[in-house]
Amino acid sequence: MNIVCLLFYWYRFIISNVVSGRSLFIWAPFKFIEVFLEGLRVGVPLRQQLTVGRYLIKQKLQGVKKYPLVLMLEPLFRCNLACAGCGKIDYPDDILDKRLSFEECMQAVDECDAPMVSIPGGEPLIHKEMPQIVEGIIARKKFVYLCTNALLLKKRIDDYKPSPYLTFSIHLDGMQERHDTSVCQEGVFERAVEAIKLALGKGFRVTVNCTLFQGENAQEVADFLDYAMELGVEGVTIAPGFSYEHAPKQDVFIKGSDVKDLFRGIFRIGKNRKWKLNHSTLYLDFLAGNQSYDCTPWGNPTRNVFGWQKPCYLLADEGYVSSFQELLDTTPWDKYGTVNNPKCAGCMAHCGYEATAVTDMLSHPVKALLTSIRGPRTEGDMVPEATPEYAREKLSSTIAGIPVSVEIAD
Ligand code: SF4
Ligand code: SF4
Description:
The protein is an alpha/beta fold and 410 residues long. It folds into two domains: 3-61, no CATH class; 70-374, Aldolase class I (TIM Barrel, Alpha-Beta Barrel). It is 44% helix and 10% strand. It has helices at residues 3-19, 28-41, 43-61, 93-96, 102-112, 130-139, 153-156, 176-182, 188-201, 218-231, 257-270, 281-287, 324-330, 350-363, 365-374, 389-401, and strands at 70-73, 116-119, 143-148, 166-171, 205-212, 236-240, 302-304, 307-309, 320-321. A nine-stranded mixed beta sheet has the order 6-5-4-3-2-1-7-8-9. The longest helix has 19 residues, at 43-61. Residues 79, 81-83, 86, 88-89, 121-123, 149, 171, 183 line the site of one iron/sulfur cluster (SF4).
């Protein structure tokens, strides 16, 4: 293999890990051929990988320390479901009735200038201007992930045109019983699967967005990932649910080391399966308890009906500002993260840690390559969890409060 091939392989390796996160099950030179052929067969992901890779390398070369990777654009909170683990729908009606206009959405996209835009909700398909908003983002050559529970997709699908820049990210938390329980309504799984098939049939890019909750076991999740691959979706985004303070039910979230044990179990079963997970390999390794990361909340900044949300998509009561620059400049970033803030305890969400994993990959490409070749480690010790600073402070103030008497002998 000549040097050009090697360089090309390396570049492709870096960027394919950024956006697809699939493991390299075979040795690197063979992977080069696989990636190259894949690129020829499916030009669309290649285009996205190149765009995102170029963007990351530019930030690195320019020495930019805080840059966004994915804009989380929430143009409304209203939804047509009421899931037990949702942290977005408990607002009063006057807030649920608010919408970000087309102009406000475009301003957010331009201000932030991230290469990818994720539109969660609420349910974005309820928004009357959504087709225009999506078109506006595509016209700016940004990759848009329209996150939907799919209940309205059949009705609205003809408002959209297939594009390499548009992906429907369909909410599915598992197989029928699991998903219907998770969204608190029977029949939703069936309708979502029907919508996936419809969208794929019409030539849209489709991914599945899966959140894991209490009571899941590794085999069940593995079976679901097999099923998602059979459906023919481009990839699956998978993460543990975050314990939203505003979620209607609090006992649905998986806590502490159970998350890592669950992911190790899933990856153990997945060793010889060709799952396409839409994450970087190092983020998957982090989920399996093998990486110790601080969160990078500015990697996925959030703009919603209140403004730019401090510090991230998940914490709703930390305040809002009116511009992206102000968000970068005025958020006390050091106050957040699992070791700094009890509200962040146990968070392993991709909106906080995927950008950290990507930065780690750019700084330690050999580690990333090796992890990619062998897949996330599923045996052996996990990295120890850091003691939270706030717990340390509490402990020392408790110790300081203990009366100590010292008797001095004559
Ligand atoms: S579909 Fe999404 S936005 Fe709607 S209630 Fe469920 S989790 Fe919340
Ligand atoms: S750890 Fe980071 S991503 Fe998670 S809630 Fe805290 S600030 Fe947000």
